[in-house]
Amino acid sequence: xxxxxxxxxxxxxxxxxxxxxxxxxxxxxxxxxxxxxxxxxxxxxxxxxxxxxxxxxxxxxxxxxxxxxxxxxxxxxxxxxxxxxxxxxxxxxxxxxxxxxxxxxxxxxxxxxxxxxxxxxxxxxxxxxxxxxxxxxxxxxxxxxxxxxxxxxxxxxxxxxxxxxxxxxxxxxxxxxxxxxxxxxxxxxxxxxxxxxxxxxxxxxxxxxxxxxxxxxxxxxxxxxxxxxxxxxxxxxxxxxxxxxxxxxxxxxxxxxxxxxxxxxxxxxxxxxxxxxxxxxxxxxxxxxxxxxxxxxxxxxxxxxxxxxxxxxxxxxxxxxxxxxxxxxxxxxxxxxxxxxxxxxxxxxxxxxxxxxxxxxxxxxxxxxxxxxxxxxxxxxxxxxxxxxxxxxxxxxxxxxxxxxxxxxxxxxxxxxxxxxxxxxxxxxxxxxxxxxxxxxxxxxxxxxxxxxxxxxxxxxxxxxxxxxxxxxxxxxxxxxxxxxxxxxxxxxxxxxxxxxxxxxxxxxxxxxxxxxxxxxxxxxxxxxxxxxxxxxxxxxxxxxxxxxxxxxxxxxxxxxxxxxxxxxxxxxxxxxxxxxxxxxxxxxxxxxxxxxxxxxxxxxxxxxxxxxxxxxxxxxxxxxxxxxxxxxxxxxxxxxxxxxxxxxxxxxxxxxxxxxxxxxxxxxxxxxxxxxxxxxxxxxxxxxxxxxxxxxxxxxxxxxxxxxxxxxxxxxxxxxxxxxxxxxxxxxxxxxxxxxxxxxxxxxxxxxxxxxxxxxxxxxxxxxxxxxxxxxxxxxxxxxxxxxxxxxxxxxxxxxxxxxxxxxxxxxxxxxxxxxxxxxxxxxxxxx
Length: 833
Known about the structure:
Blueprint: H1 5-19, H2 25-30, E1 49-50, E2 57-58, E3 66-70, H3 71-76, E4 93-98, E5 101-109, E6 126-130, E7 133-134, E8 148-155, E9 169-175, E10 183-191, E11 195-207, E12 210-221, E13 238-252, E14 255-268, E15 273-275, E16 286-287, E17 303-305, E18 335-351, E19 354-371, E20 394-398, E21 400-419, E22 422-440, E23 443-449, E24 455-459, E25 480-498, E26 503-523, E27 526-527, H4 532-537, E28 543-561, E29 564-575, E30 578-579, E31 588-589, E32 592-605, E33 610-634, E34 637-665, E35 668-680, E36 684-690, E37 693-699, E38 709-720, E39 727-737, E40 753-767, E41 770-779, E42 787-791, E43 806-808, E44 816-819, E45 824-832
Parallel strand pairs: 6-9, 17-43
Antiparallel strand pairs: 1-2, 3-8, 4-5, 6-7, 8-9, 10-11, 10-45, 11-12, 12-13, 13-14, 14-18, 15-44, 16-17, 18-19, 19-21, 20-23, 21-22, 22-25, 23-24, 25-26, 26-27, 26-28, 28-29, 29-32, 30-31, 32-33, 33-34, 34-35, 35-38, 36-37, 38-39, 39-40, 40-41, 41-45, 42-44
């Protein structure tokens, strides 16, 4: 059932109080007795090793705010892909789908969350890395995870060591390397909604200096919302599979060369987009003042014209619960992401003072999108009149089709070492990316009245049914097609002066030179390559930009004791600019820059049975990239006209993060975390021009998917059974997030959330020389239902196209949105050999 915000807050507070803790579930889970590292003795919390500074260090003595998700946490929470972290296990990390699609993810940390990084010329605000390799696109991020050793969530700008597009932080995924010792693991499981998963991980014995590791994974879930149209896919379906091969060559004790190749395929369908209400703002033709809530931000309409149409027969309005069956069947096939990549990482310990490294990678992603999640709930809104006939039914159901192809090459050279009291890192970096995309948005369905006056629904011809166009390849009206080439060069360095055993001063900087070239081949089904006159008339200009940045960082750290560490840090970061291929003129926008001031405390106490970390930060971002979007219907298409602009002034982001882990008795670990994030973008003057007139209105923009308050907590208990290694394990976690905006330009919020997950397992059952683990897991245990994305654009007047004084309400219907995934549960088994 749905809860009020107050009730959720009380439940979350009660949960955290019961556990007597406030610490990062991720960091804490790495400290669970089930996966101890180097501890002071046989009890207490273990040491966590991270590589955030390009060298292995203890998490607690590293002056960076970091949460770590390890293998056991992934298992306990049944995390199969990055989207499974969207429930808020790391409160300052936010994960959301782009629109309703699972094929592209939006990743945010500390209020740095881009709404639409889905375009080839748009960059992310958080850097995603796999084994040290930066992933240039958000497409393909939701592929199944291979054998992950840990995920490091680095909070705050990481511009010095990790580079551009790490304003909010970095998400670093570290895979398990070949061990050179024969062994492995085979996992399998089943769940509700027809779910099943299986994976294998095999280490081969070292031969002639070569160690080989093979990983394979398959994950499947049937749709959780059914599609009434026979033979078509439902919603929230996925089928993922992938293979990874890793080879470690160690010709000498000082040289380690790691080569890996991975390939994956992710077929999925979007979450279902429900109609949550009908004309909630009371829009009606007449003076704007008579309908004060029916006001589109950024406009200065004096009057409203048109008609709010009645709902089509059979359309369901449901803002309270997740629909199990869609109201109207639509053509829907899975979107498919195909990813592949090669990585070579070479380390050569030249001497005790220096290690040379080379990271070479080539990666690619091919994404094919088929998104028909809205049915009759999105533009265009049909007026079922006599004009809708069997010969020419009135079209609806926006079928969003897109193809993207990306290839990237990167080369990084590093020198890491220690000379006397100085630890240093120096590096050179090169990144080359080529991306192309195209998109079309025809109507897939039609409706008319028969001779008896009944509404008849039909499926339009996939080639010509949408005003002469359709969804079939070769029959589409191309909304946009663009191509982008990006190159980035960087040189960086960081030194830590260990003045005493307690006092450490770190100074670093990175110089980046970015070049970006982009062209718009098609817009509104006009080929700009063969019709330059149309391109000129639209104001089109190719993108040719170069940006240079120097990003410094200074950190002063003090080890008050072996168990108490404090630090103060100043860091900067920047996100590159680009151009919006969703605009007819390929409107460009500039980069944004952020400065961060942070103080932190990391402590262990109670004989290493408790750990408390605290960080407070102030971030000021200039030239924030904000988006203004609207759906415009033309020639059988319903394209998304999205304009990205830079907000003048300083965007303020302020936050506090508190983490505590407690191990009160052997086998029991209590942990939770809390994140407070305040954001404020200065008002932005927005101008519209139509019919020779221009209006400018100061508009408030928002940072999306960033709750003011978020918290997470977990209880883990391990009970040894008998004399062997067999252990009974219990895991229970809860995650709360306050309601947030889902769009830059609208103040409308989605719902708050409170999600609980759990797992019971019987681990390490001895079967000869093998170990068997059996588990029962559940996600969203209490089947909480909340709207994680609410779109009010269909409940407000259209953006000005013919008049800046009169708003058009012909396409007003209501807010539509997406509910979270329902409760899922299942059984799994794992055997190690």
